[in-house]
């Protein structure tokens, strides 16, 4: 069966610094794959490489289409949604206007329906629909960025640390969104350090180390030795702050 996303021998750079050293990864339709690893392992760089935000080589195929030379907006139009870690909202626009920007061209007639469904899914955003996005808390902005991406109905959602700083109710809302996307046949690449969350939603876990995939398999078969060597300390307990003394990233 053809994979929804088929990544082979992908390498990526920031300037002259090479971060990815030959990544292979497959994601099927209706599958949630957790991507984890220590800070600096290349997780966020892989996400950026998939959507054309860094210089990369190798093969990236999505639904049979070669994305290796595609620009970011072309990749988005083909059905890949990307939620970056930085919570990038349009601060001077309202919550509702931010959401409208996520609706794909050509579906304007369904905009009202899409907005109603989104507000039903994220009641905390419905309460603040007229508020400027810049006035939201960090957790609310995270929910807004996720909702803005989901309103475009991507076939593949790439989401980087979506639950960091969220209250338990918001974490549960994120979890339900990911499961709902999978139910309708979509796929998710979830960059997240919490293996506890992964156990609840992920079909598979891929572990990165030094810019490569060092483990790809079932969550319940993840060897504790791999956790100790390649995954940030505290991941099993649900911490997301990475290694002691090191800044977050990748």
From TrEMBL:
GO MF terms listed in the record are: ATP binding; ATP hydrolysis activity; branched-chain amino acid transmembrane transporter activity
Q: Note whether Transport occurs among the keywords.
A: yes
What is one process in the GO biological process aspect for this record? L-amino acid transport
One Pfam family cited in the UniProt record for this chain: ABC_tran
The residue ranges of the ABC transporter domain are 5-235
Q: Has keyword tRNA-binding?
A: no
Question: Which InterPro entries has this protein been placed in?
Answer: AAA+_ATPase, ABC_transporter-like_ATP-bd, ABC_transporter-like_CS, BCAA_Transport_ATP-bd_LivF, P-loop_NTPase
Write the record's keywords in alphabetical order, separated by commas: Amino-acid transport, ATP-binding, Cell inner membrane, Cell membrane, Membrane, Nucleotide-binding, Transport
Q: Which domain of life is it from?
A: Bacteria
- Protein family per UniProt: Belongs to the ABC transporter superfamily.
Q: What is this protein called?
A: ABC transporter ATP-binding protein
């Amino acid at each position: 069966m053809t994979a929804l996303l088929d990544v082979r021998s992908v390498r990526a750079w920031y300037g002259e610094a090479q971060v990815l050293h030959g990544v292979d990864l497959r994601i099927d339709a209706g599958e949630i794959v957790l991507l984890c690893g220590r800070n600096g392992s290349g997780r966020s760089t892989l996400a950026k490489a998939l959507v054309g935000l860094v210089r990369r080589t190798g093969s990236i195929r999505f639904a049979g289409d070669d994305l290796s030379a595609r620009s970011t907006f072309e990749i988005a139009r083909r059905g890949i949604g990307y939620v970056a870690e930085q919570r990038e909202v349009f601060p001077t626009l309202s919550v509702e206007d931010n959401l409208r920007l996520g609706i794909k061209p050509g579906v304007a007639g369904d905009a009202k329906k899409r907005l109603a469904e989104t507000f039903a899914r994220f009641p905390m955003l419905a309460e603040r629909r007229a508020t400027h996005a810049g006035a939201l808390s960090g957790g609310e902005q995270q929910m807004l960025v996720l909702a803005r991406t989901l309103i475009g109905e991507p076939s593949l959602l790439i989401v980087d640390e979506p639950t960091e700083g969220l209250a338990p109710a918001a974490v549960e809302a994120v979890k339900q969104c990911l499961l709902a996307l999978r139910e309708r046949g979509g796929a998710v690449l979830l960059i997240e350090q919490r293996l506890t969350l992964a156990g609840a939603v992920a079909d598979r876990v891929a572990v990165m180390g030094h810019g490569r995939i060092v483990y790809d398999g079932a969550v319940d078969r993840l060897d504790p030795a791999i956790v100790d060597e390649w995954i940030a300390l505290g991941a099993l307990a649900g911490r997301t702050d990475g290694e002691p003394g090191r800044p977050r990233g990748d």
